[in-house]
Amino acid sequence: MAKPKTYIIADTHFNHKRIVELAYRPKDYEERIRDSLSILNAEDLLIHLGDVSLGKDAEINEEVFGPLACRKILVLGNHDKNHSSHWYMNHGWDFACRSFVDKFFGWKIMFSHEPSRIPEGVDFNIHGHLHAEIHRVAEFFWSRNERCILVSLENTGYRPLLLEDILPNHNGLKVAK
Asked: Does residue 18 form part of some domain?
């Protein structure tokens, strides 16, 4: 049995016709995302930081994410708020919420869609929403610090990232607590 891994993805934006021009995505970004999800194994955890799709919500959630053998958590994004957490759990997700805090690799992490002010006792905020510094510039600048970690698909090759690869104790950075 393979060791369980935790993967992070955000802002998949399936069926968002204008995202190609707004975030300078390649026309085949949806296919790239679908292909990249094949790395997930049954023992893995996928944390999606919101904005799954714009339209055809049931179809995308059930056909793209539902069949994945891994456990799946969805943090609702600004484009996911047409449905309740319960709706998402009935359409392929194991758990859905607005944000959550948990401990991984010794760090206390807040997972959210939008960058958030980091509460006392939390080490990092891992988020999406900002699309690689080219979208929502004002939010990008106030959240730009070593404790807010943007996981933009525009910077990840349209694939999920291993959580351990983006945390400081795994890439040599030291963060003052």
From this structure: yes
Distance of CA 125 to the CA centre of its chain: 12
Supply the CATH number for residue 163's domain. 3.60.21.10
Cα–Cα dist 93/66, whole Å? 7
Domain that holds residue 86: 6-171
* Number of folded domains that form the chain: 1
| pTM exceeds 0.70 | yes
pLDDT by residue for the chain (177 residues), tens only, comes to: 678 999 999 999 999 989 998 888 999 999 999 999 999 999 999 999 999 999 999 999 999 999 999 999 999 999 999 999 999 999 999 999 999 999 999 999 999 999 988 999 999 999 999 886 665 555 555 556 778 899 989 989 999 999 999 987 654 444 443
CB 125 within 8 Å of CB 147 = yes
